[in-house]
Amino acid sequence: MDEEGINAVKLIDVWKSYHPGESVLRGINLEVDIGSFISIRGKSGAGKSTLLRIIGLLDPPTRGRVILLGRDLSEMNDDEASTLRLRHIGFIFQFFNLIPSLTVLENIELPMALAGADKSLRRKRALELLNRFGMQGLADKFPSQLSGGEQQRVAILRALANRPDIILADEPTASLDEENSQLLLELFREINEEELVTIILTTVSHEEKLPTHHDYLLKNGRIHLIR
User: Fold this and answer.
1) pTM
2) I need a surface site. Which of 58, 150, 177, 217 has the fewest CB within 10 A?
């Protein structure tokens, strides 16, 4: 998916309204290059999660075009959109969303199981990820036995399981202390640089130093480049 001229994400005049006359997003135009790491900053309620849901094909825009990896959402049926989302997009949420009855290893395997991967291949990939990022000691633990930082790092590995082209991280550091936030951001940096995954991360902080290529501010339904 690295053909010349294709963006990881391209939004053209994207609007989103949940109620008539009230637009959360107002004409968003955004291009994210393949392999980029960007942040979208903005206060709570600014529409950051809504924007990520639209990029992740979980919520359609009211109007405008969403183009992912060269494919226009308006030209896809529901099955095609679901396949694109499952195979090419990884999601990370603020509250981890790990399955409490599954071990760390099984949680990482879950997206691959949903994609129909063979059990032995799922296990091999999950172990590779844990070993690659020095987390093999967590394999047989359950989420309740992990710290918040450990749970979020496991959630990142789960998002990587199907080798996505794009990772969408919705305020992933919000519930972590400063030390764990820095560990998490370093993991994102490694993934971006070494796995060449495009990362879009949201945060409410305007000051937090991030290892990103570009930072944007979402305010009053519009997006502005900060750097």
Assistant:
1) 0.90
2) 177
